[in-house]
Amino acid sequence: MRKLLTAILLLALLISSAMAEEAEPRVLVAYLSRAGENYNVGEAREGSASAAYAGYIEKGNTAMMAAVIAELTGGDLFEIQTATPYPEDYASMLQVAQEEIDTDARPELAAHVENMADYDVIFIGYPIWHGQMPQAIYSFIEAYDLTGKTVIPFNTHEGSGQSGTQRVIEAALPGSNVLQGLAIRGKVAQEDPEQTRSLIEPWLEGMNMKRANAGSEAEVLATYQAIQQAMFDKDIETLDRLYQDGTTFTHMSGKVQTKAEFFGEIADGTLNYFAYDIHDPQIAVDGDEASLTASVTLTAKVYGASGSWTLPVNAHFTKINGQWIAHN
Ligand SMILES: Cc1cc2nc3c(=O)[nH]c(=O)nc-3n(C[C@H](O)[C@H](O)[C@H](O)COP(=O)(O)O)c2cc1C
Questions:
Q1: In angstroms, what is the span from residue 127 Cα to ligand 1's centroid?
Q2: Percentage of residues in the chain with pLDDT exceeding 90?
Q3: Does the structure show a pLDDT above 50 at 32?
Q4: Which domains does the chain have, with CATH numbers?
Q5: CA atoms within 13 A on the CB side of 138
Q6: Which residue out of 53, 93, 157 has the highest number of ligand 1 atoms within 8 Å of its CB and is therefore the one to mutate?
């Protein structure tokens, strides 16, 4: 049993520093977006009346844009959903949107942001429907007191650009500091992540909204995931490259293993890792130094015993020649 526990804890690098406190503005990225059939994107569906010009997508175009904004600003994502879901079928959606405009509707929303007071900056994202923002965006902005907050619109479209929605939002929120929004073609947001990012990054930088370490945080997480993958694959070469020489792996018993000992037991089948779920990773970057804390659920077969365990991890990294390397 002791061997088993110590083997599990071989995974955890030495526990130490706490997360750095952040002084940056707290950012919310709220967006409305439809998966399903849409114009000029996705695969046509057999039997669909609108298949000649509309294809099926799993994730909406504005949702794609929102994810990049959240990553680069460190913001929280919130999907604005109506209590009655919108139709997946494109032709029906055209009708529903037109009816909402004609009646100046305020569709009921499925959920609200409980802690709106905590946010300083609210990005509001939406598609253009019939030259306008969806009526549900009015439902959203009218549900909160956004006085004194910075509000930044963003949208996707297939030719209409912002279509005057910047002014509409400014007029609806006279007490907010509404900054210049960004419009991206839905097809670009859906199909060209590089171009999407290259449009969003300078826009965020121009408003001083890009978190200095946003890219680094994603790199650190990717490095940590690469280490997990190499453990499953028994890819010792990659493990050796991503762990700094001299790194030690500390057992719960206090026993310390070297890289060679740890990797040797992975290679010879003593330690076998199958799945590794990382929950709520928190990454702090300070120049070329970074730490990652997370709770991880590990499925493994070690010393002949199989099981699944959840344990805290605190890993440290240094950037060397452009690559994040793990160490104690
Ligand atoms: C009901 C409806 C009306 C639309 N009207 C317009 C329009 O007037 N101008 C435009 O450029 N695109 C229009 N589009 C295209 C969408 O703005 C575009 O596909 C957008 O990226 C969809 O975003 P989403 O996937 O996040 O919902 C319309 C799409 C739908 C479904």
A1: 5
A2: 72
A3: yes
A4: 2-19+214-327 (3.10.450.50), 27-206 (3.40.50.360)
A5: 14
A6: 157
